[in-house]
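Q: I'm writing up a methods section and want to include an example of the input and output format. Could you take the sequence below and give the corresponding predicted C-alpha cells, formatted cleanly so I can copy it straight into the document?
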Amino acid sequence: VDGVDAVRREVRYQIKRGVDSIKVVGLSGGVATANQDVQAEQFTQEEVTAAVYEAHKAGRTVFGHAIGIQGIMNGIRAGIDCIDHGIFLTEEACDLMLEKGIYYVPTLGPMHYYTERGKAEPWRIERAQVTRQPHKDSFRLALDKGLTFAMGSDCGFASRFPNGENALELELMVGHGMVSMDAIVAATSNAARLLRLDGLVGAISEGKLADLIVVDGNPLDDITAIQHKLKLVMKEGRIYRDTMH
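A: Here is the clean output for your methods example:
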C-alpha cells in the first residue's frame, strides 16, 4: 500500500479480518530480496505512524521488519512494539527503544543459514555476508544497552530457516554473548508478553497452559540440549512425545 490513507485502510481491513497483529514489511529493504537496498527507507514516518495508531487503538500489536537505520528509527518514533532484525542499530536507536519499551527480535537464524550453511542462492548469500558483522555488532550493542529481547526465528518464508528448527535461535543468541537463562527467557516469557499471550503461556504457573518440554541435561550448561536432547513434549497438558523410558 502507498500513502497514509491507504495504510490506514489496510490496517483496518486486516483488523476486521481478525488478525492478532500487524507487521509492517518493510520499514526498510530486506537481505533476502534482490535489488533492494537494505538501508533504504520504505514506508515513510507518517505511514508507519498511521499503521501503529490504527493497530494500537484496536488493541493489536505491531511488528516491524527493519534492517537499515532510517527504517528502524521510523518504527521506533512511531511507537512500534518490536524491531525485527535490527541489523544496523545505533546507540540512539537503543536508547529510544529502552525509553519506549520496544522489544528487539534479532532473528540470527536466517543469517546463519545463508552464511554458515549456504542454504540460498549465491546472490542472497553474498548480500547476507555484507550484513553479517553489523548484525553481530548490533546484537552486542543491544545486550550492552539492556534491551528487552524476544526470540523470533523468521522460520519459513524466504529465509531458508526451516520450520521446526527455531530452537537453533537460542544457541545462536548464546553464541553471540547472551547468558543462557536470558535466551530461555527471551524465548518464553518475554516472547509471550510481546505477543500479549502471557496470561496463557510463557511460564510455568497456575492457570496457564501446560505447554512444556523436558530435556536430558541442563540447558543452562548446554543450550543445545533444547534442540538435541528433547525427551518429552506436552501441549495443553497432553503428551505428544515421550522418550523418558
